[in-house]
Design brief:
With 79 residues, this protein is mainly alpha-helical. The chain contains 2 helices and no strands. Keywords: Membrane, Transmembrane, Transmembrane helix.
């Protein structure tokens, strides 16, 4: 019977990287939601509304790109 060997440093590195990417994606999504809120607030100035919409669009586009990249990497037929 063969023994199973686990490379713990690589496992820890992959877990830390996954955590960092996940937290970054959550932060970008939150910034997009806050930008959307600023962009639709009737009490904001026109410049704030425009900036909020641009911020929301950019942040949510980054989130969508990250999700599509994840789907691309997970589905072997797409490669």
């Amino acid at each position: 019977m063969s023994q199973i060997s686990v490379n713990w440093s690589s496992l820890a590195w992959a877990a830390a990287l996954s955590m960092a990417i996940g937290l970054t994606l959550i932060t970008v999504f939150t910034v997009g939601v806050l930008g959307y809120d600023r962009g639709t607030d009737p009490h904001s100035t026109p410049g704030q509304r425009t900036g909020g919409r641009v911020l929301a669009g950019t942040a949510l586009a980054i989130c969508a790109a990250a999700v599509l990249l994840g789907v691309y990497l997970l589905i072997p037929r797409l490669h």
